[in-house]
Amino acid sequence: MTADRLLVNSGTFAAMTSHGDIHGTRGTSTDGLFIRDARHLSRWLLTADGAAPTLLTSSEDGCVLTPAGTRDHPPAYTLFREQAVAPGALTEHIRLVSNRGEPTVVEVELQVDADFADQFELRADHRTYEKPGAHHTAHNTPDGVAFHYRRGETWSSRTAVTASPPPHRTRPADEGGTARVLVWRLALPAHGTADLALTARAVPHDAPEPPLPGTPATVRNRQEADTGGFVHARPRPRDLTSWEELARACEQGLADLAKLRIPFAGPDGEALRVPAAGIPWFLSLFGRDSLLTSLFALPYRPGQAADTLLALAATQGTRNDPARLEQPGRIVHEVRYGELAHFGQVPYGRYYGSVDATPLFLVLLEAHAAVTGDPALARRLEPQARAAVEWMFRDGGLGENGYLRYTSDAARGGLANQNWKDSPGAVCFSDGRQAEGALAVSEVQGYAYDALVRTARLARTVWEDPREADRLDEAAADLRARFRRDFWMPAHAFPALALDGRDRQVDTLASDAGHLLWSGILGPEEELAVGHRLLRPDFFSGFGIRTLAAGQAPYHPLSYHRGSIWPHDNAVIVLGLARCGLVEQAGTVARGLIRAAALHDWRLPEVMAGYGRDDHPAPVPYPHSSSPQAWAAATPLALLTALRETATASADPSGDVEDTRRHTDGHRENAAR
């Protein structure tokens, strides 16, 4: 989704034009007001005296518009349009200011509609979904219009648009459609003003009606106070590093993480705020994304990790349900609330198709206890942690097959791959052939090893169960020995990307190997070999490490997972390099990422194209990248942790700060031209 303006607040977001309008588009440029995976406003089009006004300036808070004019006949009035998003609502204030010395009357019209489209319908993948029994209605109210959507007897949603003053009249916008045009005739005194307040409140299926949001200024003040409390809480990254560019990237990342927090209920119904994966398509709880995001932010915002663990404990699998891949103890991959999920037309209502969220849950649980020094949460979630361990051995395959494995769920509409590289074709041989069967992907085995080691520590020190601790320590040692035997490719001095269903090494050279440095499953000599290999030019672009080394048959710099550059992937690798004592390599990758952040106004995108600095001095955007995106936002925090661990932060790890600034200035100059 590419919107000129993106307003986000507590799980509600609006994607709009710079004029503040919504046109109801689909595909990569989808706009609208969204909550709980549905579009609750699909049109919000302002006209004045029968024409769309001209834009003078636009910002996140609103815009300034005028009717057409010339130098000799300047516009008669100006419209100052303020907008903000509150939980479940869009609020707008329009102030008309007369520019002339005589009174005038302005006819303002606002075309509104709500199509209640599911986000999965709107994405640019050309899929269509049958909706038997769907029924849209709209009816005028004294102060606006109300839209209703029903499907059968089990699904209903509504959106109410209200205005003060009420519209003078309301008329249909389309032949037979639900769109309405609200019309006002506003009297403007000489050099005087007139005001119009608008509110759109969404009531998704099975959700309570949101409170009245108040004015845009009121909403912004509340949100700024909330965001500021999160961003400026201690410890502050700026106080922990002398590298100014890293501090700025951390601050932007914290601001984005604050926006991406969504409400969620814990195991006892307690109110939580967890990091959603990203905007626009992933403003929902995602197990893997929320866990890694919380791990990156853990030393600085441990409360986020606690909320994530509680939310995932509340949604942990309890039964066998093949339709959504639920199994007892398994940690959820994705939670959705939309119509298509409700009717089972997509499997993602509560979908468990992730092989790595469960071990990462255990990793974060122990890390939270270690970083905070407080074992209370690890003690409270002991039953969930033990269930997660048993899932790894039982259904995950660690006990019977020796590794955590998965098979494709694509035939039923689910995910082809269940590791973080979850796109079709991401797990492939170096000649481009797709790996098939029950796949054991390398980094997942590293997570499993780390989870066993850490959970053994919890069993010994928190749960007071030395017998379980010994069992898990022994299982970890066995997994480590097995992995080094089965995955290591001596000819490449590098681990295989995966084992396929016939236990053949999937021989692609992939960034997943860098995650093994973080988990500790490799031996010291192997760690050094991998760390140095990842910094060679076919992997390292100057901005980050590619998902696949260039030159291999499946490499493509504009592929989602076969040659692109993911900041969060690099963050895990930098943490691993720091853990292995590869200080120079960790600093090199960190500098590349911060260089990229500087060229994106300090906000790292979800993913960048795999082109290197020799191809272009600035990172080439990946066409469908989400922004902001949670684990990319948390990446600078992971870099800060890694550099502090290598004791380089106080010794100017930026190395080429002036080079970063020079490229930033040049990029801005080119943009200005």
SS field, number of helical segments: 18
**Share of helix, binned:** 25-40%
The order of strands across the largest sheet is: 6-7-8-9-16-13-12-11
Mean pLDDT level = 93
Kindly give the count of domains. Answer: 2
Query: What is the distance, rounded to the nearest whole angstrom, between the alpha carbons of the first and last residues?
Result: 26 Å
Pfam family, one: MGH1-like_GH
Protein name: Glycogen debranching enzyme (Alpha-1,6-glucosidase)
Organism: Streptosporangium subroseum
Question: Can you tag this structure with a few keywords?
Answer:
673 residues; alpha+beta; 2 domains; eight-stranded antiparallel β-sheet; four-stranded antiparallel β-sheet; 25 strands; 6-hairpin_glycosidase_sf; 6hp_glycosidase-like_sf; Glycogen debranching enzyme (Alpha-1,6-glucosidase)
If you had to describe this structure to a student in words, what would you say it looks like?
With 673 residues, the chain is of the alpha+beta class. The chain has two domains: 5-220, Glycoside hydrolase, family 65, N-terminal domain (Beta-galactosidase, Chain A, domain 5), CATH 2.70.98.40; 233-649, Glycosyltransferase (Alpha/alpha barrel). 32% of the residues lie in helices and 21% in strands. The strands form seven sheets. It has an eight-stranded antiparallel β-sheet, with helices on one face. Strands 1-2-3-4 form a four-stranded antiparallel β-sheet, with no helix packed on it. Strand 1 and strand 2 (12-16) form a beta hairpin. Helix 4 runs antiparallel to helix 5 (302-314) and helix 7 (357-372) crosses helix 10. The longest helix has 22 residues, at 466-487. The radius of gyration is 26 Å and the shape is globular. The two termini are 26 Å apart. Mean pLDDT is 93; it is low at 648-653 and 655-673.
